[in-house]
Design a protein that fits this description.
This protein is of the alpha+beta class.
Length: 265
């Protein structure tokens, strides 16, 4: 039994085992001949061991589960090539359509719960920012700076959606949908005043943009734009490029090197 301060409610309580990546996704990504490969910018390991630790109290664990995880997870792409979320998204005419990009307005699709998507996306980024998750001791996966507290307040229902951030969502359609996940990380931005964070889970890539006076980025924000825009685009090459970039600097386990060499052979 572990007691400590829950970082979401900030109360001293009994802490339960919390998952960074929801445990259902490990089953989605497990092939018959291999275990899931867990990738961060710090380490790459092939393991069935789930990324979890004593972090939240049971009440706050329930807030994240009910806030978005419970609704979204059954709708993600699976190795059997089912993708319920995309089916729901395509059930209504898009706002904009070109051969390589489709933009949907979730505001006109009652099957899409924007509030659940936003809570899930921000919840993932926040969890990665408040704990090391066993990868590098005393070092969180990402640093949201002053916005970590603002996101916490939103998730807890104590504050509105934070100013100066934008959350965007891209959906990668079959047949190029990658059945994998990439834990939250900070990417490179075009300007010094902009910070970009990403994570990918089984067909969905969430991007968190942070900048004082967020400006035009609010127009594509899943929450702030009244139409609640969602993009459908083949982003598989971008995801693979992210994997390759992480592989350059991340510490790899011996098991992963054997797996990589086997796949190359």
């Amino acid at each position: 039994m572990v007691f400590g301060k829950c970082p979401l409610c900030k109360l001293d309580k009994k802490l339960v085992k919390s998952h960074l990546i929801p445990r259902a996704l490990y089953n989605y990504c497990r092939a018959a001949d291999s275990e899931p490969v867990v990738i961060t910018t710090k380490v790459i390991v092939q393991t069935s061991k789930q990324t979890k630790d004593h972090l939240l109290c049971s009440d706050c664990e329930g807030i994240l589960k009910e806030g978005g995880e419970k609704w979204l997870l059954p709708k993600l792409a699976t190795i059997e090539r089912e993708f319920p979320f995309l089916d729901i998204l395509r059930s209504k005419p898009p706002k904009f359509a070109e051969p390589d990009l489709v933009v949907c307005a979730a505001a006109t699709n009652p099957g899409i719960r924007v509030d659940k998507l936003v809570h899930f996306g921000l919840g993932m980024f926040w969890k990665a920012s408040v704990h090391h998750w066993g990868f590098v001791p005393d070092e969180a996966l990402i640093d949201l700076g002053e916005y970590g507290e603002k996101v916490r307040g939103f998730l807890k229902g104590e504050a509105g959606f934070p100013d100066d951030i934008a959350l965007t969502l891209y959906v990668s359609p079959p047949p190029t949908t990658l059945i994998s996940f990439f834990q939250p990380f900070e990417g490179k931005a075009a300007t010094d005043d902009l910070r970009l964070f990403y994570f990918y889970v089984c067909g969905l890539r969430f991007t968190l943009s942070i900048r004082k006076q967020i400006g035009d980025l609010r127009g594509i924000c899943l929450h702030s734009n009244p139409e609640h825009l969602i993009h459908i685009e083949d982003i598989s090459q971008e995801i693979k490029a992210t994997f390759r970039e992480a592989a350059k600097t991340a510490k790899k386990s011996e098991k992963v090197m054997q797996y990589i060499n086997k796949r190359k052979a």
